[in-house]
Every structure is written in C-alpha cells, then in structure tokens.
Amino acid sequence: MNGWSPSRSYDGRRMGALSLLLGFLPVVLFLAALILMDSYELVTRRSILAALMAGAAAALLCSLANQLLVVHLRLDVDVLRRYVAPVLEESVKAMYIVYLIRSSRVGFLVDAGIQGFAVGTGFAIIENLYYASATRDQGLGLWIVRGLGTAVMHGSATAIVAILSKSLTERRSSMSPKLFLPGIALAAVAHSLFNQFILSPFVSTAAMLIVMPLLVGIVFERSEKATREWLGTDLDSEVELLDLIQSGEIAETPVGTYLASLNRFPGRVVADMLCLLRIHLELSLRAKGILIAHSAGVHLPVDDQVRANLEEMRYLERSIGKTGKIAIKPILRTSARDLWEIYMLRG
Q1: Residue 253 falls in which region: left (phi positive, over 0), alpha (psi -120 to 50) or beta
Q2: Which chain regions cross the lipid bilayer (predicted)?
C-alpha cells in the first residue's frame, strides 16, 4: 500500500483550488473596486490588461534574478527575503510605472494608482502560482499569509509608487528620474517590513489588509475631488480663450500680444501657431467633455471631427517646426496632463 486514495487526491486538489482562490480573489476584487471608484473612467480595459501583463513579466524577471542571487552568488535566503528582494522587486515593478508617467499615459493620481495596483496584481498572481506549486501540501493558514497578504502588499506597494511618483512629477513639472525614487523607497521599506514579520504573520497580514487599501482609498477620494476642481477651472479658461480666437478678438489679449512679438517668423508660420493653439483648445475641451460625460454614465465616442483635428495638429506641428514649437510653448499648454488628454483622444 502506498497510502494514496482517490478521496485524498480529491481533497488535495480541492484544498489547492481553495488556496489559490484565497490568494487571487481578494486582490482581484480590490482592483475591480478601484476601477469602479474611477467615476471618470480614466483607465481602459486595454490599459489594465497591459499593466497586469507588465506585472507578470516583472515577476518572472525577479524570479530569475532571485535564483541567480541564491544559486550562483550564494546569497543567504533570509537576507534575500528581508532586504534584497523588496528593493529588487519594487524597482522592477516600478519600471512600467516610470514608462507610463514619463510618456504621459497617466493624467491623474487615480489612474496612476489603478495601473500601479494592476501591475502589483499581475506580479502577485505569478508569484502565488509559483508558491502554490512549491507548497501544495500546506494548509489554509499559510495561504492567508502567503497568498492573500502578499497579494495585497504587492498591489498596494506599486500603487503607492505610482501615486507618489505622479504627485511629485506633477508638482515639480519635471520627469527627472530622481523624483521616482521616494515612491520606490517607500514601497521597498513597506515590503521589507512585511517580509520580516516583526509582528506575528497573521497580525502583519491583517494590518496590511486594513492599512494599505485604506491609504489607497483616501488618496483616491482626494484625487477625485481634485479632478473635479481641475475640470471646472480649466474648462472655463479654455472656453474663454477659444471664444476670443474664434471671434477675432485675440489680438487684444496677452496671447495675441505674444504672437505679434514673434515677428522673426514668417506670417504664415505665426498663423499656423494660432491654428495650433485653437486646435489644442478644441481637443482639450473635447477630452474634458468626455470625462464629464463618463462621470454621468454617458459614453461619448471619438468622432471624425476629433480625428481630423488630431491629423491637422500633426500637420501644423510639422509646419511650424521645432523652433516654432519652442516659441509657442509659453502660450500652448503642454503639461503632462495636457499631453495625457491628447493621448486619451488618440486611444
């Protein structure tokens, strides 16, 4: 007799499935809750899928790096788990966040946080699959700590990196790499403290489940309020400026005075600059209109007029050239959020 029985095999499979469910379901549900909190629908399904895949790729890369450190460089496993892995994993996960922010693919703290949590979720799914295969005979107690706690930790830590990095780059109006370091450092410290189990494993997991989602939720609520205020303020000023351009009264404004001062450029180029400013305003207002409609539950498609404006904008940018784009920069809004609006319309 080898001690095997069909019922034992069935119980093992059922326990394994329940363990995986404990590891995956809560963090996926929390990600879904964050998406539902996004009343302006800033993040598309395609963006969420890309973030999940980026997190999964980061997990595979970190797994290879960890094996290299332990097997080939003889690094102590406890040192790896407590100190090295947190820094390595948070840095690798942050690479996709850095790409999103620097390429103006996130416009607000809300979408930064959602995509950050999605990256962490993708990472946790791959990591938990690995641990499920390596520790299939362990009980539910381990998975409450290993699966559920770690999954929420990974998602929340990367969300913090994204939120803090977006906040700093926005406030400083800079994409300097050093502005991403505070978020990565904070996430690595939280990750390291979790791995060291200074408190009991169950208490550490309970604290992570309470504190991290609460922190992310508070940031989301404040960001939603800031988004509403930004929409209202910018909308009024852009409508006023567009009316002045369309009515021909722009010459009496500071914008018109500035354009008149660009007499070193041919008149045709200055006219193209004014057209570019008008199209930027029209596209920005369209983007804001779409966001406001989303918050009311109405979906406005990107129509042919928007696509025509995008095409004309590309033509005008080529027409005025690099020097012209530099000259018009003082009156043309090109902040990360303004560029994000254009990216959103391009789909």
Answers
A1: beta
A2: 15-36, 48-71, 108-131, 143-164, 200-220
Residues 209/144, Cβ–Cβ less than 8 Å: no
SS3 117: helix
Tokens of 38: 């996004």
pLDDT tens digits, 148-200: 788 888 999 999 999 999 999 999 989 999 999 999 999 999 999 888 877 77
Q: H helices within the chain, ranges in order?
A: 6-37, 45-67, 77-79, 85-102, 109-134, 140-143, 150-172, 181-196, 201-247, 254-260, 267-295, 304-328, 336-346
CA distance 155 to 103: 22
pLDDT above 60 (res 241): yes
* Whole-number Å distance between alpha carbons of 241 and 90: 44
How far is it, in rounded angstroms, from Cα 284 to Cα 335?
A: 12
| Measured distance CA(38)–CA(131) in Å, rounded | 32
Cα 69 from Cα 165, distance rounded (Å): 29
pLDDT tens, 301-314?
A: 888 899 999 999 99
C-alpha distances out from residue 73 to 59, 68, 234, Å: 20, 7, 55
Q: Are 24 and 125 in contact (CB under 8 A)?
A: yes
Is the Cβ–Cβ distance between 212 and 153 less than 8 Å? yes
Global pTM reads 0.85
> 32, exposed or middle or buried, with CB in 10 Å at 0-12, 13-18, 19+?
exposed
Summarize pLDDT for 21-39 with one digit per residue, the tens. Answer: 766 777 888 888 888 888 8
| Gap between the terminal Cα atoms of the chain | 63
Angle between helix 6-37 and 150-172 (nearest 10): 20
Give me 227's structure tokens: 């988004």
How many CA atoms are closer than 13 Å to the CA of 295, on its beta-carbon side?
11
Residue whose structure tokens are 């939120």 = 163
Cβ–Cβ < 8 Å for 194, 211: no
Distance CA 2, CA 4 (A): 6
Cα separation, 92 vs 159, whole angstroms: 14
What are 237's two structure tokens?
A: 């000023």
Q: Where are the alpha helices (DSSP H) in 38-108?
A: 45-67, 77-79, 85-102
